[in-house]
Amino acid sequence: MGTLVCQACNSTIDHFEDEKVTVLYAKCDCCEDNKDEK
Predict the structure, then answer these.
(1) For 9-23, what is each residue's pLDDT tens digit?
(2) What does DSSP assign to residue 13?
(3) pTM to 2 decimal places
């Protein structure tokens, strides 16, 4: 089971099937939308 985690706010975005336990970092929609306001 893999987990997709937002690198900006550390919230869990999604889970996906994988052979190993994996954590991938991306940006969630909320953080992507707010990047211009920072």
Answers:
(1) 999 999 999 888 999
(2) E
(3) 0.69
